[in-house]
C-alpha cells in the first residue's frame, strides 16, 4: 500500500463522512488490499475478498463517491481487518 492509498484510507475512516473522495482512489485502494474486481453491466462493480463482497455503481457524471458508498466501503474494510 503506497502513500496515496494510505491517504484514501484516512479519508474513508474520517468522521463525519466526506463527500469529496474520488471513486477511482477508492477502487485503487481496494485493489491494493487484494480485492478482486468484477465488472458488471453499465457502471456496476463488485469487489470480493475473504468471503466478503462490496457492490456498487461507479458515480456518474461526477467522479466523487457518495457518502453512503464511503460508509459502505468503511464497513467492508473493517470486516476485512483493514484500518488506518
Short summary:
The chain contains 3 helices and 3 strands, in the order ααβββα. It has helices spanning 3-12, 23-32, 67-80; strands at residues 36-39, 44-49, 52-57.
Low-confidence stretches: none
Mean pLDDT: 95
How far apart lie the N and C ends? 11 Å
Derived from helix and strand composition plus strand pairing, the structural class reads: alpha+beta
**Radius of gyration over C-alpha positions, nearest whole angstrom:** 12 Å
Strand order of the largest sheet: 1-2-3
What spatial form do the alpha-carbon principal axes imply? globular
Strand residues, percent: 15-25%
The biggest sheet, with number of strands, parallel, antiparallel or mixed sense and barrel status, is: 3 strands, antiparallel
Counting DSSP E segments of at least 2 residues, the number of strands comes to: 3
Question: Helical percent range?
Answer: 40-55%
**H-E order:** HHEEEH
Descriptive tags:
single chain, 84 residues, alpha+beta, 3-stranded antiparallel beta sheet, globular
